[in-house]
Amino acid sequence: MKMRTSPWRAAIAAVLTAASGAALVPATAQAAAPMVKTQAPGYYRMMLGDFELTVLSDGTVDLPVDKLLTNIKPPQLEKALSRAHLKAPVETSVNTFLINTGAQLVLVDTGAGNLFGPTLGKLLANLKAAGYQPEQIDAVLITHLHPDHLGGLLAGDKRAFPNATVHLAKAEADFWMSAENMKKAPADAQSGFQNAMAMLTPYATADKLKPFEGDTELVPGIKAISNAGHTPGHSNYAVESKGQKLVLWGDLLHVASVQFADPSVTIQFDSDSKAAAAQRKKAFADAAKQGYWVGAAHVSFPGIGHVTPEGKGYVYVPANYTTKQ
Ligand SMILES: [Zn+2]
Fold first, then answer.
1. pLDDT at 7 (0 to 100)
2. Whose C-alpha in 41, 142, 291, 315 is 20 to 30 A from the C-alpha of 285?
3. Average pLDDT of the chain to the nearest whole number
4. How far is the CA of 141 from the centre of ligand 1 (A)?
C-alpha cells in the first residue's frame, strides 16, 4: 500500500516553510560541517626560464615588530602597519627556496628546524608534499647563520640532507664558528654560536661544508652575491635561466609593510644596522631598475615578487598567481 503524507504533517511543513522563508532542506545538510583548521600545503611553484622554482614554507612566527624595529618612531610604525591592515605582533613567514636546474636540486636556507617552536620547522613536510625527498638535494645554500635559516640542517642529530654539500660565505662561517667570538658575545647571544657549530659540524665532518669567498657561481645559473650587513657574511643568491632572473634576498628585510616604503628602518637582529640599511637601499634600487624577480625569507609566503619605485621608497608587487608549468 502506498504511504500518504498525513494532512497535519503537510500543514506543519507549510507553516515552517512560510516562517523561515525557505524550503525545508534535508536534515543532513543542517548539521554544521567541522572546521578543518589547517592551511593548504606550503609550497608554491613557478618556472624561471628552464629552472623550476618551488618556494617551501617553514611556517610563520609572530614578530613583536614594535619592539624589534629601530630607526622608526612608534607613530610612524603604527601608521605603516595600519596601512597594511596589520598590528604588532606581525605573523611573519619563513620561506625557503628550492631550485631544480634540471641537473641539480638546490635548496636556499633550511628554516628553523626545532629551534623556534611548533609554528616553524615545517620545511621537510612541505618539501615532501611538493614531491621531493631530502636525499635528492645536491646543494644547500645558506644566506646567513641565524637560527631560522640554519635550524633545518639537522633532523634529530643527523644531517637532514645527507647527500647535500652546504655552501655559505666564509666570512659567515668564520664569524659563527669562532670560539673566540662566542666568548666575547653577551650571554643571550651564546646560543647563536652554539647552534651554528652544532648544525654545521656534521656537514664539515662528512666533508660536505664548502665556504666560498666573494661573488661566486656555485652551481651553473646560481651565483652568490656578498650582502654583508645583517650579519658579517650575509649573502644573496642570484638565479638565472634563459634571461629570467631571480635574486634571493635572505634577511635583506624583515617587515615588508614598513621597510619597502622606508628602507632606512632597521631591526635589532642586524649585526651592523647601518651597513644593513645601505645594502637594502642598494638592492631595492637595483631590483626596481633591472626589473628582475626577488624572493625574501620573511615576506608573506611565497615571498616572490617585483619592486617598483614609489615616492621616496618602493612598493612590493607580489607575484601574479600562476598554474602554468
Ligand atoms: Zn631570518
1. 52
2. 142
3. 93
4. 14
Distance 253 CA to ligand 1 centre (A): 9
Ligand 1 center–CA 297 separation, angstroms: 6
- Phi/psi for 166 (5° steps) reads -95, 125
The answer to whether residues 69 and 255 touch, using CB atoms and an 8 Å cutoff, is: yes
**SS3 letters for the chain?**
CCCCCCHHHHHHHHHHHHHHCCCCCCHHHHCCCCCCCCCCCCEEEEEECCEEEEEEEEEEEEECHHHHEECCCHHHHHHHHHHCCCCCCEEEEEEEEEEECCCCEEEECCCCCCCCCCCECCHHHHHHHCCCCHHHCCEEECCCCCHHHHHHHEECCEECCCCCEEEEEHHHHHHHCCHHHHHHCCHHHHHHHHHHHHHHHHHHHCCCEEEECCCCEEECCEEEEECCCCCCCCEEEEEEECCEEEEECCCCCCCHHHHCCCCCCEECCCCCHHHHHHHHHHHHHHHHHHCCEEECCCCCCCCEEEEEEECCEEEEEECCCCCCC
57 alpha carbon to ligand 1 midpoint, in Å?
13
Whole-angstrom Cα distance, residue 58 to residue 61? 10
Please report the pLDDT score of residue 23 as a whole number: 47
130-141: pLDDT as tens digits: 999 999 999 999
Neighbours of ion ligand 1 (CB under 5 A): 148, 251
250-296: pLDDT as tens digits: 999 999 999 999 999 999 999 999 999 999 999 999 999 999 999 99
- Whole-prediction pTM: 0.90
Peptide bond before residue 211 is cis, with ω within 30 degrees of 0: no
- Give Rg (Cα) of the chain: 25
* pLDDT higher than 60, residue 20: no
